[in-house]
Amino acid sequence: MAGLVPGQAVAGAAAPKPTEKELKAQLTSLTKKVDKLIAEYNAKRVAVTRAKAAEKAARDRLKAAEAAFTLAESQVGDIAQLRYQAGGMGMVRELLTPGYGGAAMLEQLQAEQDARLGGFAAARDARKRAAGDAAELTAELRDDMSELTGRRKDAEKLIDEIKDKLDRLVPTAPGKRANGAWAPELPTGSDNITPRTRLMRTEVRSHFSLRFPVGCYRAENSGEHPLGRACDFMLSSGGAMPSAADAALGEEIAAWAVKNGGKLGVKYVIYRQRIYNLGFPGWRAMADRGGVTANHFDHVHISMY
Questions:
Q1: Residues near 260 by Cβ (< 8 Å), separated by ≥ 6?
Q2: How many domains does the chain have?
Q3: 104 belongs to a structural domain
Q4: Interhelix angle for 102-168 vs 20-86, to 10°?
Q5: How far apart are CA 149 and CA 145, in angstroms?
Q6: Helix (H) or strand (E) holding 214
Q7: How buried is 238 (Cβ within 10 angstroms: 0-12 exposed, 13-18 middle, 19+ buried)?
Q8: Strand order in the sheet with 230-234
Q9: Structural domain span for residue 42
Q10: What value does the CA radius of gyration of the chain take, rounded to a whole number of Å?
Q11: Within a domain: residue 184?
Q12: Which residues on neighbouring strands pair with residue 188, listed in sequence order?
């Protein structure tokens, strides 16, 4: 990762605070590096897939060679057994007796013996080559996987750096007092939400690709929605459970709201029947309210001070 992190501080001197323009320029640079790294990562994944296929083919060849080797070894053993049983040259003399016609048979046996010995040698050499190929490909595969893992970690680290830099651009909401408390706000505008709620909604929309509506003000008798201090970021529609990808997006939104809540004036976040109160850090389970929407499985709820 050396050389990938721009703007490192010089020892003994306070690094100047980067401007918004400088941060965006750094983000652009890092994004390009991440895109290149991801492209290389994907290319290496393709290479690893091919290496796995080559390794399997080599192991299949090794298996076939082992079978041929075993057969040839058995055949050589049979020849040795026949020689032993024939009693050496006694059998040869008998085969060469006039009128027996054994000369041709002896030549045939010799040819068969030579063929079997040749097959044995070929199978032995094939097994050796296949074993070497498999071992070499296994080593290459191990190296590729190691490199692949390293590239993934590099990409993840850069992505985290980008997210941190993006979060630095999140503004501090109006109304924050010196002691960290938040001054009360009244709803304004045609959407009937407070300025802090509006800022939070804008920031979430700018950081995440939302496919479903965002609901904030509702004319109800209780809760934060009628006060203009809460928004629901929907992850599905019709009360259905969100897809795995949308559920993961909900986790990202919830984590982002918790991380940046101190600047934005977030009071608490609810998602998947859990609540995170920024005044009492940590996710806590909630009681079952009897449904997907009631238990906040299909949306992230963010309430503001």
A1: 167, 170, 203, 266
A2: 2
A3: yes
A4: 170
A5: 6
A6: strand 214-215
A7: exposed
A8: 214-215, 230-234, 299-304, 266-270, 274-277, 280-285
A9: 20-168
A10: 37
A11: no
A12: 193
* Model confidence, pTM: 0.62
Q: Which amino acid is at 213?
A: P
Residue 26 CB partners (closer than 8 Å, separation 6+): 6, 7, 18, 165
Ordered DSSP codes for 34-49: HHHHHHHHHHHHHHHH
User: How many residues appear in the chain?
Assistant: 305
Query: Domain check: are 118 and 42 in the same one?
Result: yes
* Residue showing tokens 């501080």: 9
CB distance 58 to 127 below 8 Å: no
**What token pair was written down for 194?**
């407070």
- In order along its 305 residues, the chain shows pLDDT tens digits of 444 544 444 445 566 767 767 877 877 887 787 788 778 777 777 777 777 777 677 778 777 777 777 777 776 666 666 656 655 555 555 555 555 555 566 567 667 767 766 766 777 777 777 777 767 777 777 787 788 778 778 878 877 887 888 888 899 999 999 998 999 999 999 999 999 999 999 999 999 999 999 999 999 888 999 999 999 999 999 999 999 999 999 999 999 999 999 999 999 999 999 999 999 999 999 999 999 999 999 999 999 99
